[in-house]
Every structure is written in C-alpha cells, then in structure tokens.
Amino acid sequence: MIENLPFSALRVFESAARHLSFKRAAEELFITPAAVSQQIKGLEHQLGIKLFNRHNRGLSLTDNAKKGLPALTQGFDHLLESVRRIRSANEESKLTVWMAPSFAAKWFIPRLHRFSDAHDDIDLNISASPSLVDSTAAKNTIPAENFRRDGVDIAIRFGKGDYPGCRVVKLFSVSAIPLCSPKLMQGDHPLRSPEDLQFHTLLHDDTKYEGRPDWKTWLKAAKVKNIDSSRGVHFNHGNLAINAAVDGQGVVLSMKSLASDDIAAGRLVVPFDFSLPLEYAYYLITLEESSDSSNTAAFRNWLIEEGRQEESSNSKD
Fold it and tell me: Is 167 exposed, middle or buried (0-12, 13-18, 19+ CB in 10 A)?
C-alpha cells in the first residue's frame, strides 16, 4: 500500500536517483552508503519493482523509476517550501541586519534606540562581522546568494553601490578627515594647520576594505610635504584607531560619520577645515524579492531617514 511506504526510504531514493550515486546520497542525507543501499532494497521489495540498474561503473534508473522521479522530486520541493513557510511564520518579527563592526559601534548603535522605540514589535539580529567586508579581492560585490546563504535580510555596506541581484539605496556620502583629542590642540606643538602633523603620531586604520581613507592620499590632497605618511601606529580595526585618538595617542584619519558621537561628546575634535571627499559611500542593500516585506520596509524607511539627516549634517560642514 502506498500509504504504508516509509517516508525516509522515499527520501533516500529521491536523493540517490538525483545523484545516481549511493555515496553522494549518503553525504547529502548524513547517513552511510550501506544505509542508503538497505533503504533502497527495502523500498524495491515493498513496491515489487526494481528502481536501479547496478553497473560496474555506477547506477542507472529503470524505466519505472524514471517515470516517478520528477513528481517525487517536486513533492519534496513543495514539502520543504511548506516547512520554510511554517518557520518564517514563526520568525515574522525577526530581522537580520549585517554591517561592518566599526559602523555598527560608532554610527548605528547610538541611533538604534530610535528604531526600537518606534518598532518594539520587531526583533533585530545585528551581525557585525568583518567576514563580508568589501575587499579588493571581492571587487566590491556582494552576490545575492550570500544573503540567502547567511540568512541576511538587510546589509549596510561601504562601497560603490554595485551589488548584483539586490535592491540598493545610497544612505550618505563621506569624507576623510583627521580627528584628535582636544589635548592635541594645546601644548608645545598645537595642531593649527596640516603641517603641524609632523609633530604628532599618525594613527592608521588598516582594516582591509575597499575605499578606506589613508594618510598618503589625504596628505597629498592637502598639499602637505615632508611627512612620512606610513609612520605612526597601525591598527587592524577602525574602532581601535579611533579609541587611540580619543585617548590622545595621536591623530587618526577616519570619517566624521564614524566619530559623530565622540565629536558631540567632546572626546574628539576636527583640527583642520580640509576634508577629502571619498568616491565610496554607505549603502543599504536588500534582496529584491524580500524588499517589500513589512519589517524590511520599516527598517529601510527608518534608516533612509537617518541617512538623510547624516547627509544633511555632512553637507553643512
């Protein structure tokens, strides 16, 4: 009887038939090849037909198996989709947002309370990992497959905005500026002009991402000569470089957006008027097929407004 056929055996058959390999079916289902063979034999016995032709160099499907496989595969696909929908119904209130660690700590978190106050029904899962930072090797792309693989609903990234298969909205532009503790504006060699940097330690953010500001480019644009742009202290994390500047250890080259809280609190100051506009900007990225979900739309609209305020603040400087 069809209703008495074991589900597990049908699943094993579908996988083995798709791969034409007991070994690959075993790997996919996390069982042993012997268990696959045993399930197939049991299923063949119950059906009273042969499903596979065994050859010295592999397997082939019998005519009966070929006729039944497409519908069986489609059935499992529908079943998996149903399970996915059941799970998503339970996770409607959750939203997974990815961003770089420095952006999360210095720009996003100080503003997060405004979203939480307005949308206390949405649970955010913030993933601040450098593993997805745009790098030179990645050529500034974030394939849509990465969203699906990592379960990301929204990403905020610093780049050129070229993300195939995704919906992209520019949040705000940025410029490279020196930042330092107010302490360095006093003393024997107060910072009054870019040439005064020769008397101070240069702090470098060496995080590996495309478009990051560097002292060599900034000094050249500011027409400052006779300063070794590579000297000073180098950090592999932007937060460390900014924190060192807050502590008065030197002058960091960063973006005002990442230091706005420290500037507002008086922990950092901008010693010079000169800033260097960057080719790169911050972008809000979502999958095209999920952009219109209510939670995604709510977060996107809030973040776009925050970005608009940031852009307006930057343009006044």
Answer: middle
Residue tagged 């996390």 (tokens): 30
Could you read off the pLDDT of 124-163 as tens digits, one per residue? 888 876 555 444 434 444 556 667 767 788 899 888 888 8
Residues ≥6 apart with Cβ < 8 Å to 286:
153, 154, 155, 166, 167, 296, 300
Q: Distance from first CA to last CA of the chain, Å, rounded?
A: 78
Would you state the CATH architecture of domain 2-90?
Orthogonal Bundle (1.10)
CB 231 within 8 A of CB 220: no
Residue pair 12/36 in contact (Cβ under 8 Å)? The answer is yes
Query: Does the structure show a pLDDT above 80 at 13?
Result: yes
Domains in the chain: boundaries: 2-90, 93-317
Question: Can you point out the beta strands (E) in 131-182?
Answer: 154-159, 166-179
Bridge pairing between strands 94-99 and 123-128: parallel
Tokens standing for residue 295:
């939670």
**In the chain, how long is the greatest CA-to-CA distance?**
95
Q: How far apart are CA 150 and CA 157, in angstroms?
A: 16
Cα separation of 114 and 296, whole Å? 16
* Structure confidence by residue, pLDDT tens digits, 202-257: 999 988 777 788 999 999 999 999 899 999 999 988 889 999 999 999 999 999 88
Question: Residue 175's beta-bridge partner residues?
Answer: 277
pTM of the shown model = 0.66
* Domain covering 93-317: architecture: 3-Layer(aba) Sandwich (3.40)
Query: Is the sign of the CA dihedral 292, 293, 296, 298 positive or negative?
Result: positive
